[in-house]
Amino acid sequence: MQTKYAKVKQYIKSKVLDGTYEPHHKIHSESELMKQFNVSRHTVRLAIGELVSEGWLYREQGAGTFCADRSRHSSNSSASNKNIAIVTTYISDYIFPSIIRGAEAYLSEKGYQVTLFNTNNDHEKEREYLEKIISNGFEGVIIEPTKSAYSNPNINYYLNLERLGIPYLMINAYYEALEPLRVTVDDERGAYLQTEHHIQHGHRNILGFFKTDDMQGTLRMKGYLKAHREYKVPINPNNIITYQTEEKDKKPLEELDRILKNTETAPTAIVSYNDELAINLINVLRSHNLKVPRDMSIVGFDNSFLTELSEVKLTSIEHPKAELGRQAALLITELIEKPYQQRDMQKEIESIVFPTELIIRNSTRSIADPAKSS
Asked: How many CA atoms lie within 13 A of 66 on its CB side?
């Protein structure tokens, strides 16, 4: 548990790091901080004293306490470290190791050190790591945004990165308010292809599972809806199952279980947010003595290693993974080595959107075909 003085110190430091306190601007008075945190003057002075000693603040006799200019310190630090931060929602799970390997391989060739951060898709963790990145003078940042479908409470930190001249770009998704450089996959088109594949094979009662606190999920749901509309297939609202990150291991599985118990409206196909969920959904189907693709067709997303692990090889949408990481690394080094003011405006660095394609295996079939035993 934080001591009172540590809370005051962290608050002031956070205000410096998110740009609320700009260099040479006066911070809140001791009296204001005492009132805000309900602490003694001694506690406030202890917190401020440490921040002065550490170079975050400075005092002027008779004038007050001011925010120090750390931009020069950060620049010197980054030049010596040549360090780039990679921040992802996950590090060791699913497709993320491949993305990270792609980025690390390229950055290593260019002589950069890489520091990895894992937010677990949590805004508080994202804030913590952004503070570390700004404090330690990284040269650049590759970041996968946290819960990108929502308004982000850490926007000020990104604006401060811009003010400090620390380039950053986003992968897989992005915060629309910032309009950042990004490297993404065409999620909407991918989900369109998932759904179209089912429709072209005669399916009309198609379940869609989408994680909607991330931009990827909202775009994939849009693609699912678009395919239904373009093929003039009526959309059953009950067929759309949405969930949040914290619910991913429970809610979609419970919802499928519930739907399968209602035999009057039994679906024949599933569009899954990703391969990881698809494998878990197949396990639910198995518990109901249903087989893929005989009783249910299913399409995943990401074309991950999981597509080959199941007894049923999963049809899935391709994700570039390592190449996405490599392109992100290439772009961040361009941003570092050619600051905005020095770039040729005719050769402006642009965002990358990877096209999608459907990789067909044996987890789907036409409902007009004879039932398969697989």
From this structure: 13
Residue-averaged pLDDT of the chain: 89
Give backbone dihedrals phi and psi of 237, rounded to 5 degrees, phi first.
-55, -30
Question: Cα–chain-centroid distance for residue 43?
Answer: 38
CATH code, residues 72-180+322-354: 3.40.50.2300
CATH code of 4-69, in short, is: 1.10.10.10
CA–CA gap between residue 42 and residue 130 (Å, rounded)? 30
Please give the CATH architecture assigned to the domain spanning 187-319: 3-Layer(aba) Sandwich (3.40)
Please state which of the ranges 64-78, 159-173, 329-343 shows the lowest mean pLDDT.
64-78
| Residue 198 · residue 228 · CB < 8 Å | no
Residue 343: how many CA atoms within 13 Å on its side-chain side? 15
Task: Answer yes or no: is pLDDT of 266 > 60.
Answer: yes
∠ CA 161-217-308, rounded to 5°: 110
